[in-house]
């Protein structure tokens, strides 16, 4: 749990903690959420047949941009001929990720494991003829990376699922309740076989918007998962029965209301691999997004899409390497930290050590010169740049001897000390951080 530090009337780093999902009591899940809170970085893998024909995952046939038959023909080109789960796991570990989530089944109904319940899978109906999930989980766990299973509740190709195409439905569940009950048993059966076979550390549900919690039997589904493993974490797409919030693509301007949250974001513009999508985010852009998420108490779940042969585009490999190298230089300011100080004291992302005696300031881009820090009512013992241990000088401006109002701290950051992406300045304090939140002037508090 994020440490709560009450500094006068100020709650540092946890000003907006909110609740977990509205059906789940926060205090009931605190212990199991500890590793997630500490993780900071996860990798999201959208692996599926949609990578073959340069179309969007599942939505392309649902929205009518490609016929269902042509979409499903992609199974013939989904070979995984160069799939190397050990290499995948090593790349994920090296970038600094603490957990990984992979698609076990997307909305198209094609399972990436050897399901006994569905007709479509990478093992039975794809050219690959192999289970993707088991070997990857084994390799990730060898490297102490937590394993997450993405699972689509909706299944647009299943005959017992009511929704089919955007403008066409199979049936009305109120008129054919027995058919809907068959589908409930089907999707819950697949969840059970995934739980039994792989025992995911985390379940990442998707598609809950098409039905209510009652229709999904969300509480029953949650309990079924927890009966297998009480420590399993469930994302916030189970109609109120999840453990954390998961905003998608758009970065929240203010911290989400849930205590635990992650931002899931693509590396380019699509979740799955598309040969035509070359609008890659740069390492700088990804690192700044990552730092902002962590400073606001969240994680980044960064998505990558493999090619149908099981390899990755070069920008994925090179960017993850840059991210990993940056984490090796600056990880002290990311991992094992809590959210930082409010905006206004410093105009940028910040984090704190768990004892709040060390403040980490993140400086984006090629910024050098004087860095301003306001309202720090502590003595500064030392300032260094992570990665190089370059010591920085500072001066205090505007401190009046007879007033308790702290002065302005100007830290000198030379051009030679800055990181090529984001610089992390480590400010060591004499005691847990204390912030001045007054109005200045003659006021002393």
Number of strands: 20
Q: Helical proportion?
A: 10-25%
Number of helices: 11
- Strand order across the largest sheet: 9-8-5-4-3-11-10
Low-confidence stretches: 1-19
Q: What is the residue-averaged pLDDT?
A: 93
Between the first and last Cα atoms, what is the distance in angstroms? 30 Å
- The general outline is elongated
Radius of gyration: 24 Å
Largest sheet: 7 strands, parallel
Structural class given helices, strands, pairing?
A: alpha/beta
Instruction: Estimate the strand proportion.
Output: 15-25%
Structure description:
- This protein is α/β, with parallel strands linked by helices.
- Helix 5 packs across helix 6 and helix 7 runs parallel beside helix 9.
- The radius of gyration is 24 Å and the shape is elongated.
- Strand 16 and strand 17 form a beta hairpin.
- The longest helix is centred in the middle third of the chain and has 22 residues.
- The protein is built from eleven helices and 20 strands.
Secondary structure blueprint with pairings:
Blueprint: E1 5-7, E2 10-12, H1 26-29, H2 34-39, E3 41-45, H3 59-62, H4 68-72, H5 85-94, E4 99-105, H6 133-142, E5 146-152, E6 163-165, E7 168-169, H7 177-198, E8 202-206, H8 213-216, H9 218-228, E9 233-234, E10 262-266, H10 283-295, E11 299-304, H11 314-330, E12 337-339, E13 350-353, E14 358-364, E15 369-373, E16 380-385, E17 390-391, E18 394-397, E19 408-413, E20 422-429
Parallel strand pairs: 3-4, 3-11, 4-5, 5-8, 8-9, 10-11
Antiparallel strand pairs: 1-2, 6-7, 12-13, 13-14, 14-20, 15-19, 16-17, 16-20, 18-19
Helix pairs in contact: 5-6, 7-9
């Amino acid at each position: 749990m994020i440490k709560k530090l009450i500094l006068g009337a100020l709650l540092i780093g946890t000003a907006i903690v909110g609740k977990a999902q509205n059906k789940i009591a926060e205090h009931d899940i605190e212990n199991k959420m500890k590793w997630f809170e500490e993780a900071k970085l996860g990798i999201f893998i959208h692996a599926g047949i949609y990578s073959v024909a340069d179309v969007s995952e599942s939505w392309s046939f649902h929205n009518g941009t490609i016929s269902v038959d042509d979409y499903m023909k992609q199974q013939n080109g989904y070979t995984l001929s160069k799939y190397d789960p050990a290499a995948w796991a090593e790349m994920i570990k090296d970038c600094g990720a603490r957990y990984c989530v992979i698609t076990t089944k997307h909305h198209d109904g094609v399972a990436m494991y050897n399901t006994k319940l569905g007709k479509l899978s990478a093992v039975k109906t794809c050219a690959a003829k192999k289970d993707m999930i088991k070997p990857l989980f084994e390799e990730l766990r060898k490297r102490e990376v937590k394993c997450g299973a993405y699972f689509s509740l909706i299944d647009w190709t299943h005959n017992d699922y009511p929704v089919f195409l955007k403008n066409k439905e199979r049936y009305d569940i109120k008129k054919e309740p027995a058919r809907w009950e068959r589908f409930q048993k089907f999707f819950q059966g697949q969840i059970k076989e995934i739980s039994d076979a792989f025992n995911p550390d985390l379940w990442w549900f998707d598609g809950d918007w098409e039905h209510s919690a009652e229709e999904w039997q969300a509480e029953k589904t949650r309990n079924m998962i927890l009966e297998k493993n009480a420590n399993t974490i469930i994302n916030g797409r189970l109609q109120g029965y999840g453990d954390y919030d998961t905003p998608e693509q758009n970065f929240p301007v203010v911290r989400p209301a849930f205590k635990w949250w992650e931002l899931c974001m693509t590396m380019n513009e699509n979740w799955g691999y598309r040969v035509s999508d070359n609008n890659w985010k740069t390492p700088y852009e990804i690192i700044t997004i990552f730092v902002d998420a962590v400073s606001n108490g969240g994680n980044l779940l960064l998505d990558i899409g493999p090619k149908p042969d099981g390899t990755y585009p070069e920008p994925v490999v090179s960017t993850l390497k840059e991210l990993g190298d940056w984490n090796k230089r600056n990880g002290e300011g990311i991992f094992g930290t809590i959210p930082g100080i409010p905006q206004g004291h410093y105009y940028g992302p910040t984090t704190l050590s768990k004892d709040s005696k060390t403040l980490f300031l993140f400086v984006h881009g090629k910024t050098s010169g004087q860095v301003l820090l306001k309202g720090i009512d502590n003595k500064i013992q030392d300032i260094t740049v992570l990665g190089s241990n370059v010591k920085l000088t500072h001066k205090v401006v505007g401190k009046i001897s007879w007033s308790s109002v702290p002065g302005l701290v100007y830290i000198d950051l030379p051009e030679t000390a800055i990181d090529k992406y984001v610089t992390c300045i480590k400010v060591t304090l004499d005691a847990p951080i204390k912030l001045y939140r007054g109005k200045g002037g003659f006021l002393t508090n």
